[in-house]
Predict the structure.
Amino acid sequence: MSETAAGARGRSIRAVPPGGTEDRQHTEHGLERKQQLLDAAAELFADRGYGATRIVDICAAAGVAKGLFYWYFPTKSDLFVELVRTMRHRLRRAQGKAMAPDDDAPTRVAQGAAESVRFMAAHAGYFALLDVERADPEIAHVLDEGAGVYFSDVRRLVAEGQAAGTIPDGETDLLTVGVLGAVSSFSNSFRNGRIDPTIDVDALADFVAGWVARALR
Amino acid sequence: MSETAAGARGRSIRAVPPGGTEDRQHTEHGLERKQQLLDAAAELFADRGYGATRIVDICAAAGVAKGLFYWYFPTKSDLFVELVRTMRHRLRRAQGKAMAPDDDAPTRVAQGAAESVRFMAAHAGYFALLDVERADPEIAHVLDEGAGVYFSDVRRLVAEGQAAGTIPDGETDLLTVGVLGAVSSFSNSFRNGRIDPTIDVDALADFVAGWVARALR
DNA sequence: CTCCACCTTGACCGGCGGGTCGACCGCGAG
DNA sequence: CTCGCGGTCGACCCGCCGGTCAAGGTGGAG
Protein backbone atom coordinates (compact mmCIF):
# COMPACT_ATOMS: atom_id res chain seq x y z
CA MET A 1 0.00 0.00 0.00
CA SER A 2 2.92 2.36 0.42
CA GLU A 3 3.05 4.77 -2.45
CA THR A 4 6.84 4.74 -2.06
CA ALA A 5 7.95 8.15 -3.13
CA ALA A 6 10.48 6.32 -5.28
CA GLY A 7 8.37 7.37 -8.23
CA ALA A 8 10.35 9.05 -10.96
CA ARG A 9 13.94 8.04 -11.13
CA GLY A 10 16.35 7.60 -13.94
CA ARG A 11 15.66 9.71 -16.97
CA SER A 12 12.02 9.51 -17.93
CA ILE A 13 10.38 12.12 -15.73
CA ARG A 14 6.91 10.81 -16.21
CA ALA A 15 4.39 9.66 -13.64
CA VAL A 16 3.39 11.41 -10.45
CA PRO A 17 2.79 14.87 -11.87
CA PRO A 18 2.20 17.81 -9.53
CA GLY A 19 -1.53 17.15 -9.49
CA GLY A 20 -0.78 13.94 -7.71
CA THR A 21 -2.66 11.53 -9.92
CA GLU A 22 -1.87 9.73 -13.10
CA ASP A 23 -2.58 11.74 -16.22
CA ARG A 24 -1.69 9.16 -18.76
CA GLN A 25 -2.59 9.78 -22.38
CA HIS A 26 -4.80 6.99 -23.60
CA THR A 27 -5.63 6.27 -27.20
CA GLU A 28 -9.07 5.11 -28.09
CA HIS A 29 -7.83 1.59 -28.04
CA GLY A 30 -6.37 2.23 -24.61
CA LEU A 31 -9.72 3.39 -23.32
CA GLU A 32 -11.33 0.24 -24.63
CA ARG A 33 -8.76 -1.90 -22.91
CA LYS A 34 -9.36 0.00 -19.71
CA GLN A 35 -13.06 -0.62 -20.01
CA GLN A 36 -12.40 -4.32 -20.49
CA LEU A 37 -10.54 -4.34 -17.22
CA LEU A 38 -13.35 -2.45 -15.54
CA ASP A 39 -15.93 -4.89 -16.82
CA ALA A 40 -13.93 -7.94 -15.90
CA ALA A 41 -13.34 -6.54 -12.44
CA ALA A 42 -17.00 -5.72 -11.92
CA GLU A 43 -17.99 -9.25 -12.73
CA LEU A 44 -15.38 -10.79 -10.48
CA PHE A 45 -16.10 -8.43 -7.60
CA ALA A 46 -19.79 -9.20 -7.83
CA ASP A 47 -19.05 -12.87 -7.99
CA ARG A 48 -16.49 -13.42 -5.27
CA GLY A 49 -16.13 -10.10 -3.54
CA TYR A 50 -13.61 -7.34 -3.68
CA GLY A 51 -11.00 -8.68 -1.30
CA ALA A 52 -11.07 -12.15 -2.74
CA THR A 53 -10.50 -10.95 -6.29
CA ARG A 54 -6.85 -11.02 -7.29
CA ILE A 55 -5.52 -8.45 -9.68
CA VAL A 56 -4.10 -11.24 -11.73
CA ASP A 57 -7.60 -12.72 -11.98
CA ILE A 58 -8.95 -9.50 -13.36
CA CYS A 59 -6.18 -9.44 -15.92
CA ALA A 60 -6.71 -13.05 -16.85
CA ALA A 61 -10.42 -12.43 -17.29
CA ALA A 62 -9.61 -9.50 -19.54
CA GLY A 63 -6.98 -11.53 -21.34
CA VAL A 64 -3.97 -9.37 -20.53
CA ALA A 65 -0.86 -9.64 -18.40
CA LYS A 66 -0.72 -8.36 -14.88
CA GLY A 67 1.71 -5.59 -15.60
CA LEU A 68 -0.84 -3.93 -17.82
CA PHE A 69 -3.18 -3.40 -14.94
CA TYR A 70 -0.87 -0.78 -13.54
CA TRP A 71 -0.75 0.99 -16.83
CA TYR A 72 -4.40 1.85 -16.38
CA PHE A 73 -4.92 1.93 -12.63
CA PRO A 74 -2.67 2.94 -9.76
CA THR A 75 -4.21 0.36 -7.40
CA LYS A 76 -7.05 -2.05 -7.08
CA SER A 77 -9.10 0.30 -4.95
CA ASP A 78 -8.79 3.05 -7.56
CA LEU A 79 -10.44 0.78 -10.03
CA PHE A 80 -13.16 0.07 -7.52
CA VAL A 81 -13.72 3.75 -6.89
CA GLU A 82 -14.03 4.43 -10.58
CA LEU A 83 -16.57 1.65 -10.90
CA VAL A 84 -18.69 2.91 -8.05
CA ARG A 85 -18.69 6.53 -9.16
CA THR A 86 -19.74 5.58 -12.68
CA MET A 87 -22.57 3.48 -11.32
CA ARG A 88 -23.74 6.24 -9.08
CA HIS A 89 -23.92 8.75 -11.85
CA ARG A 90 -25.96 6.45 -14.00
CA LEU A 91 -28.38 5.64 -11.22
CA ARG A 92 -28.94 9.25 -10.30
CA ARG A 93 -29.56 10.14 -13.89
CA ALA A 94 -32.13 7.37 -14.15
CA GLN A 95 -33.80 8.54 -10.97
CA GLY A 96 -33.99 12.10 -12.19
CA LYS A 97 -35.51 11.02 -15.45
CA ALA A 98 -38.13 8.90 -13.68
CA MET A 99 -39.52 11.61 -11.47
CA ALA A 100 -42.29 13.70 -12.98
CA PRO A 101 -41.43 17.31 -12.17
CA ASP A 102 -44.99 18.35 -11.48
CA ASP A 103 -46.00 15.58 -9.09
CA ASP A 104 -45.95 16.12 -5.37
CA ALA A 105 -43.05 15.10 -3.16
CA PRO A 106 -44.26 11.72 -1.87
CA THR A 107 -45.16 10.69 -5.40
CA ARG A 108 -41.77 11.72 -6.66
CA VAL A 109 -40.06 9.83 -3.88
CA ALA A 110 -42.04 6.74 -4.75
CA GLN A 111 -41.21 7.16 -8.43
CA GLY A 112 -37.54 7.49 -7.64
CA ALA A 113 -37.64 4.46 -5.39
CA ALA A 114 -39.36 2.36 -8.03
CA GLU A 115 -36.91 3.44 -10.67
CA SER A 116 -34.00 2.65 -8.37
CA VAL A 117 -35.30 -0.84 -7.88
CA ARG A 118 -35.66 -1.34 -11.60
CA PHE A 119 -32.23 0.07 -12.28
CA MET A 120 -30.54 -2.04 -9.65
CA ALA A 121 -32.29 -5.13 -10.90
CA ALA A 122 -31.20 -4.38 -14.44
CA HIS A 123 -27.62 -3.91 -13.29
CA ALA A 124 -27.56 -6.53 -10.57
CA GLY A 125 -24.08 -7.56 -11.52
CA TYR A 126 -22.84 -4.10 -10.81
CA PHE A 127 -24.65 -3.48 -7.58
CA ALA A 128 -23.65 -6.76 -6.06
CA LEU A 129 -20.16 -5.42 -5.71
CA LEU A 130 -21.33 -2.91 -3.17
CA ASP A 131 -21.50 -5.75 -0.65
CA VAL A 132 -17.95 -5.14 0.24
CA GLU A 133 -15.91 -4.83 3.32
CA ARG A 134 -15.12 -1.24 4.23
CA ALA A 135 -11.67 -2.00 5.55
CA ASP A 136 -9.86 -0.05 2.88
CA PRO A 137 -10.37 3.61 3.75
CA GLU A 138 -10.54 4.54 0.11
CA ILE A 139 -13.39 2.09 -0.33
CA ALA A 140 -15.17 3.26 2.77
CA HIS A 141 -14.88 6.82 1.61
CA VAL A 142 -16.43 6.37 -1.79
CA LEU A 143 -19.20 4.30 -0.27
CA ASP A 144 -19.99 6.88 2.38
CA GLU A 145 -19.83 9.56 -0.24
CA GLY A 146 -22.49 7.71 -2.18
CA ALA A 147 -24.66 7.25 0.86
CA GLY A 148 -24.43 10.98 1.51
CA VAL A 149 -25.43 11.87 -2.02
CA TYR A 150 -28.52 9.71 -2.01
CA PHE A 151 -29.38 10.85 1.48
CA SER A 152 -29.40 14.51 0.58
CA ASP A 153 -31.29 13.85 -2.64
CA VAL A 154 -34.09 12.13 -0.79
CA ARG A 155 -33.99 14.39 2.22
CA ARG A 156 -34.57 17.40 0.01
CA LEU A 157 -37.71 15.81 -1.39
CA VAL A 158 -38.99 14.78 2.00
CA ALA A 159 -38.45 18.22 3.48
CA GLU A 160 -40.21 19.70 0.49
CA GLY A 161 -43.15 17.42 1.06
CA GLN A 162 -43.29 18.35 4.71
CA ALA A 163 -43.27 22.02 3.83
CA ALA A 164 -46.12 21.45 1.42
CA GLY A 165 -48.02 19.36 3.95
CA THR A 166 -48.00 16.23 1.80
CA ILE A 167 -45.73 14.40 4.24
CA PRO A 168 -46.21 14.48 8.04
CA ASP A 169 -43.92 16.85 9.88
CA GLY A 170 -40.96 15.86 12.01
CA GLU A 171 -38.20 13.29 11.79
CA THR A 172 -37.12 14.27 8.31
CA ASP A 173 -33.87 12.34 8.64
CA LEU A 174 -35.57 9.20 9.84
CA LEU A 175 -38.06 9.21 7.04
CA THR A 176 -35.20 9.61 4.61
CA VAL A 177 -33.32 6.70 6.10
CA GLY A 178 -36.43 4.61 5.85
CA VAL A 179 -36.89 5.31 2.16
CA LEU A 180 -33.28 4.60 1.35
CA GLY A 181 -33.33 1.46 3.43
CA ALA A 182 -36.43 0.15 1.74
CA VAL A 183 -34.94 0.56 -1.71
CA SER A 184 -31.70 -1.15 -0.83
CA SER A 185 -33.34 -3.91 1.17
CA PHE A 186 -35.74 -4.89 -1.54
CA SER A 187 -33.08 -4.62 -4.19
CA ASN A 188 -30.64 -6.72 -2.24
CA SER A 189 -33.18 -9.37 -1.47
CA PHE A 190 -34.19 -9.55 -5.08
CA ARG A 191 -30.61 -9.78 -6.26
CA ASN A 192 -29.70 -12.43 -3.72
CA GLY A 193 -32.70 -14.51 -4.59
CA ARG A 194 -34.36 -14.13 -1.22
CA ILE A 195 -37.38 -12.97 -3.15
CA ASP A 196 -39.05 -15.22 -5.67
CA PRO A 197 -36.97 -14.37 -8.76
CA THR A 198 -39.84 -15.06 -11.11
CA ILE A 199 -41.62 -11.98 -9.89
CA ASP A 200 -41.89 -9.27 -12.48
CA VAL A 201 -39.39 -6.52 -11.74
CA ASP A 202 -41.97 -3.86 -12.46
CA ALA A 203 -44.30 -5.49 -9.99
CA LEU A 204 -41.56 -5.38 -7.38
CA ALA A 205 -40.86 -1.76 -8.18
CA ASP A 206 -44.54 -0.94 -7.80
CA PHE A 207 -44.66 -2.79 -4.52
CA VAL A 208 -41.73 -0.80 -3.20
CA ALA A 209 -43.33 2.43 -4.35
CA GLY A 210 -46.46 1.47 -2.43
CA TRP A 211 -44.47 0.45 0.63
CA VAL A 212 -42.68 3.76 0.71
CA ALA A 213 -45.82 5.75 0.05
CA ARG A 214 -47.60 4.03 2.94
CA ALA A 215 -44.72 4.49 5.33
CA LEU A 216 -44.48 8.14 4.38
CA ARG A 217 -48.13 8.75 5.03
CA MET B 1 -20.49 -11.67 27.90
CA SER B 2 -21.21 -13.26 31.17
CA GLU B 3 -21.64 -16.77 32.35
CA THR B 4 -22.09 -18.59 29.09
CA ALA B 5 -20.83 -21.75 30.69
CA ALA B 6 -23.74 -22.60 32.88
CA GLY B 7 -22.42 -23.64 36.24
CA ALA B 8 -19.64 -25.79 34.89
CA ARG B 9 -16.86 -25.50 37.37
CA GLY B 10 -14.19 -27.54 38.97
CA ARG B 11 -14.03 -30.11 36.24
CA SER B 12 -13.33 -29.64 32.59
CA ILE B 13 -16.32 -29.50 30.30
CA ARG B 14 -16.52 -30.09 26.61
CA ALA B 15 -16.60 -26.97 24.50
CA VAL B 16 -16.98 -28.37 21.02
CA PRO B 17 -19.23 -31.25 20.09
CA PRO B 18 -17.44 -34.41 19.01
CA GLY B 19 -18.26 -33.71 15.40
CA GLY B 20 -14.87 -34.96 14.34
CA THR B 21 -12.93 -31.73 14.62
CA GLU B 22 -11.40 -30.20 17.68
CA ASP B 23 -12.98 -31.44 20.84
CA ARG B 24 -10.56 -30.01 23.29
CA GLN B 25 -11.19 -30.23 26.99
CA HIS B 26 -11.20 -26.75 28.42
CA THR B 27 -10.93 -25.87 32.07
CA GLU B 28 -12.91 -22.99 33.40
CA HIS B 29 -9.87 -20.82 33.05
CA GLY B 30 -9.54 -21.98 29.48
CA LEU B 31 -13.08 -20.91 28.72
CA GLU B 32 -12.37 -17.50 30.16
CA ARG B 33 -9.33 -17.15 27.99
CA LYS B 34 -11.36 -18.19 24.99
CA GLN B 35 -13.94 -15.56 25.82
CA GLN B 36 -11.21 -12.95 26.01
CA LEU B 37 -10.20 -13.87 22.50
CA LEU B 38 -13.81 -13.70 21.35
CA ASP B 39 -14.27 -10.27 22.89
CA ALA B 40 -11.05 -8.89 21.52
CA ALA B 41 -11.93 -10.21 18.09
CA ALA B 42 -15.42 -8.75 18.18
CA GLU B 43 -14.04 -5.33 18.93
CA LEU B 44 -11.41 -5.49 16.23
CA PHE B 45 -13.80 -6.87 13.63
CA ALA B 46 -16.28 -4.11 14.36
CA ASP B 47 -13.54 -1.55 14.20
CA ARG B 48 -11.60 -2.46 11.10
CA GLY B 49 -13.51 -5.31 9.50
CA TYR B 50 -13.06 -9.02 9.43
CA GLY B 51 -10.59 -9.34 6.62
CA ALA B 52 -8.41 -6.53 7.86
CA THR B 53 -8.09 -8.00 11.32
CA ARG B 54 -4.97 -10.08 11.79
CA ILE B 55 -5.01 -13.04 14.09
CA VAL B 56 -1.93 -11.66 15.75
CA ASP B 57 -3.85 -8.44 16.44
CA ILE B 58 -6.58 -10.35 18.19
CA CYS B 59 -3.99 -12.10 20.31
CA ALA B 60 -2.19 -8.89 21.12
CA ALA B 61 -5.47 -7.29 22.14
CA ALA B 62 -6.16 -10.24 24.39
CA GLY B 63 -2.62 -10.19 25.68
CA VAL B 64 -1.56 -13.64 24.57
CA ALA B 65 0.80 -15.14 22.03
CA LYS B 66 -0.35 -16.06 18.56
CA GLY B 67 0.11 -19.75 19.04
CA LEU B 68 -2.57 -19.77 21.68
CA PHE B 69 -5.21 -18.72 19.21
CA TYR B 70 -5.02 -22.14 17.62
CA TRP B 71 -5.45 -23.80 20.92
CA TYR B 72 -8.94 -22.38 21.08
CA PHE B 73 -10.02 -21.98 17.46
CA PRO B 74 -9.22 -23.95 14.34
CA THR B 75 -9.34 -20.87 12.12
CA LYS B 76 -10.32 -17.24 12.10
CA SER B 77 -13.63 -17.90 10.42
CA ASP B 78 -14.55 -20.43 13.08
CA LEU B 79 -14.20 -17.73 15.66
CA PHE B 80 -16.37 -15.47 13.54
CA VAL B 81 -19.04 -18.09 13.20
CA GLU B 82 -19.12 -18.65 16.93
CA LEU B 83 -19.50 -14.92 17.48
CA VAL B 84 -22.36 -14.58 15.04
CA ARG B 85 -24.28 -17.55 16.32
CA THR B 86 -24.05 -16.34 19.89
CA MET B 87 -25.30 -12.93 18.88
CA ARG B 88 -28.17 -14.37 16.96
CA HIS B 89 -29.36 -16.46 19.85
CA ARG B 90 -29.33 -13.51 22.17
CA LEU B 91 -31.20 -11.30 19.75
CA ARG B 92 -33.89 -13.87 19.12
CA ARG B 93 -34.36 -14.39 22.81
CA ALA B 94 -34.76 -10.64 23.30
CA GLN B 95 -37.27 -10.49 20.47
CA GLY B 96 -39.32 -13.31 21.88
CA LYS B 97 -39.39 -11.70 25.26
CA ALA B 98 -40.51 -8.38 23.81
CA MET B 99 -43.56 -9.67 21.99
CA ALA B 100 -46.75 -9.82 24.00
CA PRO B 101 -48.28 -13.21 23.24
CA ASP B 102 -51.84 -11.95 23.14
CA ASP B 103 -51.40 -8.99 20.81
CA ASP B 104 -52.25 -9.28 17.15
CA ALA B 105 -49.67 -10.04 14.48
CA PRO B 106 -48.87 -6.55 13.23
CA THR B 107 -48.44 -5.35 16.78
CA ARG B 108 -46.14 -8.21 17.59
CA VAL B 109 -44.11 -7.55 14.47
CA ALA B 110 -43.77 -3.93 15.48
CA GLN B 111 -42.78 -4.92 19.01
CA GLY B 112 -40.16 -7.29 17.69
CA ALA B 113 -38.84 -4.67 15.33
CA ALA B 114 -38.57 -2.09 18.10
CA GLU B 115 -36.83 -4.52 20.38
CA SER B 116 -34.41 -5.46 17.64
CA VAL B 117 -33.50 -1.84 17.16
CA ARG B 118 -32.93 -1.41 20.88
CA PHE B 119 -30.89 -4.57 21.09
CA MET B 120 -28.73 -3.72 18.12
CA ALA B 121 -28.13 -0.26 19.46
CA ALA B 122 -27.15 -1.65 22.83
CA HIS B 123 -24.73 -4.05 21.17
CA ALA B 124 -23.60 -1.84 18.34
CA GLY B 125 -20.05 -3.04 18.70
CA TYR B 126 -21.18 -6.55 18.03
CA PHE B 127 -23.47 -5.87 15.14
CA ALA B 128 -21.00 -3.73 13.30
CA LEU B 129 -19.05 -6.84 12.52
CA LEU B 130 -21.83 -8.08 10.30
CA ASP B 131 -20.72 -5.56 7.68
CA VAL B 132 -18.37 -8.08 6.32
CA GLU B 133 -17.37 -9.39 3.01
CA ARG B 134 -18.93 -12.72 2.18
CA ALA B 135 -15.93 -14.00 0.33
CA ASP B 136 -15.21 -16.79 2.78
CA PRO B 137 -17.89 -19.43 2.17
CA GLU B 138 -18.02 -20.26 5.85
CA ILE B 139 -18.81 -16.62 6.58
CA ALA B 140 -21.37 -16.39 3.84
CA HIS B 141 -23.04 -19.51 5.12
CA VAL B 142 -23.52 -18.40 8.70
CA LEU B 143 -24.78 -15.03 7.51
CA ASP B 144 -27.30 -16.55 5.14
CA GLU B 145 -28.33 -18.96 7.82
CA GLY B 146 -29.09 -15.98 10.06
CA ALA B 147 -31.02 -14.21 7.36
CA GLY B 148 -33.09 -17.32 6.86
CA VAL B 149 -33.88 -17.63 10.54
CA TYR B 150 -35.10 -14.08 10.89
CA PHE B 151 -36.98 -14.33 7.63
CA SER B 152 -38.99 -17.33 8.69
CA ASP B 153 -39.61 -15.85 12.13
CA VAL B 154 -41.14 -12.74 10.64
CA ARG B 155 -42.84 -14.49 7.78
CA ARG B 156 -44.70 -16.70 10.18
CA LEU B 157 -46.08 -13.66 11.96
CA VAL B 158 -47.02 -11.91 8.76
CA ALA B 159 -48.83 -14.93 7.41
CA GLU B 160 -50.62 -15.28 10.69
CA GLY B 161 -51.75 -11.67 10.46
CA GLN B 162 -52.94 -12.17 6.92
CA ALA B 163 -54.94 -15.20 7.95
CA ALA B 164 -56.50 -13.18 10.75
CA GLY B 165 -57.20 -10.27 8.44
CA THR B 166 -55.03 -7.85 10.40
CA ILE B 167 -52.54 -7.57 7.56
CA PRO B 168 -53.56 -7.18 3.90
CA ASP B 169 -53.36 -10.33 1.84
CA GLY B 170 -50.77 -11.16 -0.76
CA GLU B 171 -47.04 -10.68 -1.11
CA THR B 172 -46.20 -12.28 2.22
CA ASP B 173 -42.54 -12.57 1.32
CA LEU B 174 -42.26 -8.99 0.21
CA LEU B 175 -43.83 -7.69 3.36
CA THR B 176 -41.39 -9.78 5.34
CA VAL B 177 -38.43 -8.45 3.45
CA GLY B 178 -39.67 -4.95 4.07
CA VAL B 179 -39.86 -5.43 7.81
CA LEU B 180 -36.44 -6.99 8.03
CA GLY B 181 -34.98 -4.32 5.81
CA ALA B 182 -36.44 -1.53 7.89
CA VAL B 183 -34.96 -2.88 11.08
CA SER B 184 -31.53 -3.34 9.65
CA SER B 185 -31.53 -0.06 7.76
CA PHE B 186 -32.45 2.01 10.77
CA SER B 187 -30.07 0.12 12.99
CA ASN B 188 -27.21 0.49 10.56
CA SER B 189 -27.83 4.16 10.05
CA PHE B 190 -27.95 4.73 13.76
CA ARG B 191 -24.79 2.78 14.38
CA ASN B 192 -22.93 4.51 11.58
CA GLY B 193 -23.96 7.92 12.80
CA ARG B 194 -26.05 8.72 9.75
CA ILE B 195 -28.84 9.45 12.19
CA ASP B 196 -28.44 12.12 14.82
CA PRO B 197 -26.84 10.05 17.59
CA THR B 198 -28.35 12.19 20.31
CA ILE B 199 -31.76 10.78 19.53
CA ASP B 200 -33.16 8.61 22.27
CA VAL B 201 -32.88 4.97 21.32
CA ASP B 202 -36.38 4.26 22.54
CA ALA B 203 -37.67 7.07 20.37
CA LEU B 204 -35.93 5.50 17.40
CA ALA B 205 -37.36 2.12 18.27
CA ASP B 206 -40.83 3.62 18.48
CA PHE B 207 -40.36 5.35 15.19
CA VAL B 208 -39.37 2.08 13.54
CA ALA B 209 -42.35 0.34 15.08
CA GLY B 210 -44.58 3.03 13.60
CA TRP B 211 -42.87 2.85 10.24
CA VAL B 212 -43.37 -0.88 10.06
CA ALA B 213 -46.95 -0.70 11.27
CA ARG B 214 -47.82 1.88 8.62
CA ALA B 215 -46.14 -0.07 5.84
CA LEU B 216 -47.92 -3.22 6.92
CA ARG B 217 -51.32 -1.57 6.87
C1' DC C 1 6.66 -36.88 44.29
C1' DT C 2 5.21 -38.02 39.58
C1' DC C 3 2.49 -37.83 35.92
C1' DC C 4 -0.54 -36.05 32.72
C1' DA C 5 -3.56 -32.85 30.70
C1' DC C 6 -4.08 -28.31 29.93
C1' DC C 7 -1.99 -24.03 28.80
C1' DT C 8 1.41 -20.79 26.83
C1' DT C 9 5.10 -19.15 24.08
C1' DG C 10 7.54 -17.16 20.00
C1' DA C 11 10.53 -18.54 16.34
C1' DC C 12 9.84 -20.37 12.05
C1' DC C 13 7.92 -21.68 7.49
C1' DG C 14 5.68 -21.26 3.09
C1' DG C 15 3.20 -19.11 -0.27
C1' DC C 16 0.36 -15.77 -1.76
C1' DG C 17 -0.29 -11.65 -3.98
C1' DG C 18 0.43 -6.54 -4.67
C1' DG C 19 3.43 -3.89 -6.94
C1' DT C 20 7.91 -3.11 -9.87
C1' DC C 21 10.90 -3.32 -13.69
C1' DG C 22 13.25 -3.62 -17.94
C1' DA C 23 12.48 -5.10 -22.37
C1' DC C 24 9.89 -5.23 -26.42
C1' DC C 25 6.32 -4.18 -30.08
C1' DG C 26 3.92 -1.25 -33.64
C1' DC C 27 2.42 2.79 -35.45
C1' DG C 28 2.08 7.57 -36.95
C1' DA C 29 4.72 11.85 -37.35
C1' DG C 30 8.55 14.25 -39.00
C1' DC D 1 14.04 5.58 -41.87
C1' DT D 2 13.92 6.92 -37.02
C1' DC D 3 12.08 8.49 -33.01
C1' DG D 4 8.85 8.60 -29.34
C1' DC D 5 5.00 7.19 -27.16
C1' DG D 6 1.16 4.26 -26.10
C1' DG D 7 0.76 -0.27 -25.02
C1' DT D 8 2.14 -5.07 -23.52
C1' DC D 9 4.49 -8.75 -21.26
C1' DG D 10 5.84 -11.76 -17.43
C1' DA D 11 9.66 -12.69 -14.30
C1' DC D 12 10.87 -11.01 -10.11
C1' DC D 13 10.87 -8.96 -5.43
C1' DC D 14 9.39 -8.80 -0.89
C1' DG D 15 6.44 -8.05 3.06
C1' DC D 16 2.74 -10.00 5.21
C1' DC D 17 0.12 -13.28 7.47
C1' DG D 18 -2.04 -17.85 8.44
C1' DG D 19 -0.70 -21.72 10.35
C1' DT D 20 2.91 -25.07 12.70
C1' DC D 21 5.84 -26.78 16.12
C1' DA D 22 8.87 -28.13 19.85
C1' DA D 23 9.63 -26.88 24.12
C1' DG D 24 8.52 -25.35 28.62
C1' DG D 25 5.18 -24.22 32.63
C1' DT D 26 1.69 -25.38 36.25
C1' DG D 27 -1.55 -27.59 39.13
C1' DG D 28 -4.26 -31.23 40.66
C1' DA D 29 -5.01 -36.38 40.97
C1' DG D 30 -3.05 -40.59 42.59
In short: Residues 137-164 of chain A form the longest helix (28 residues).
